[in-house]
Amino acid sequence: MTTLIKSLNDIKKAINISKRDIGFVPTMGALHDGHISLIKACKQECKTTFVSIFVNPKQFSPGEDFDKYPRDFEADLKICKELNVDYIFSPDVSEIYPEKVSEEIVTPPTALTEMLCGLSRKDFFPGVATVVKKLLEIVTPDYAYFGEKDLQQLFVIRWLVKEYKIPTFIRACPIVREKNGLACSSRNRYLNEDKKKLASHIHKSLEMARRDVRSGIFTASKAALESLVYLSQFPDIKVEYLESRSKENLEKVTDGRTKGFYFLVAARVGNVRLIDNIEV
Ligand code: AMP
To answer: Among residues 5, 173, 31, which one has the least CA distance to residue 86?
Structure first.
């Protein structure tokens, strides 16, 4: 049975009667196959599964798509019920950010944020770190599940639990893709079929880069450049960044490595911002 919880009081009660290990999957809803894979991993490992559905206003800057972010609560509920999620935590904004309490924003280190997505989305990582810290403190999970699709976010979350000594193991789950290779994302709902087809070239460009490094044709940075050239033939894809970054700490790869790093990309298709990455 799936129980829907809105208040902090009710979630405390639920946690008290839950069998451990408790597993937790934080989401912003508009659930898709990527989220479903996280929930399945959680259910496999834990006795009780909590899924949060909360569109966190703090991680959107003015002018970003907070108001337009896809919301489909009925469909999300159906998916969670089908997956036998034990608890859905779907608080109102005022429950997480009470107006009378002055908000302490968690600021991750600049080494993790002043690059890649952090350059164009100043509020994003502080907003994510702030809400994930709160949610982990509320749900007190033994395990929490995050997708590798949001790779920079995953590094920030790992920093967060270490920095605040939060006793939750972080599990990273592989990227789930649509048939054409496009990484599943709630924002894919903004794309029609033609745009989705176009967007699939983003993943293709990452595969090309990896292939060229593996076969020894190019160094990581040259392969990234070649992929940028590939994407530049599509005028409706506007690349924000396409870079190679180390596996250890997302530092720039400058030493001609042939493995142990990622290519990461952010690009707009029309006005839909998409991110993706591939491990080499
Ligand atoms: P979101 O609802 O977009 O905040 O995402 C909630 C969680 O789902 C995050 O940990 C994401 O990294 C993860 N996620 C989103 N898309 C995918 C995907 N395509 N594959 C795997 N995990 C994903």
So the answer is: 5
Question: What is the residue range of 60's domain?
Answer: 3-173
Distance between Cα 274 and ligand 1 center (Å): 12
Residue among 38, 42, 187 whose CB has most ligand 1 atoms within 8 A, to mutate: 38
| Best of 24, 135, 150 for a ligand 1 pocket test (most atoms within 8 Å of beta carbon) | 150
CB of 176 shorter than 6 A to ligand 1: yes
As for how many domains the chain has, the answer is 2
* 150 and 197 part of one domain: no
The answer to whether residue 251 sits within a structural domain is yes
Examine the residue annotation and report whether 203 is marked as an active-site residue of this protein: no
Cβ contact 26:132 at 8 Å? yes
Question: What pLDDT, on a 0 to 100 scale, did the predictor assign at position 81?
Answer: 98
SS3 241: strand
CATH number of residue 134's parent domain = 3.40.50.620
For residues 27 and 166, state if they share a domain: yes
Any ligand 1 atom below 6 A from CB of 11: no
pLDDT tens readout for residues 52-76:
999 999 999 999 999 999 999 999 9
Q: Are residues 192 and 107 in the same domain?
A: no
Report the nearest atom of ligand 1 relative to the CA of 174.
Answer: 21
Phi, psi of 196, rounded to the nearest 5 degrees:
-65, -40
Same domain, 134 and 203: no
Cis peptide before 21 (omega within 30 of 0): yes
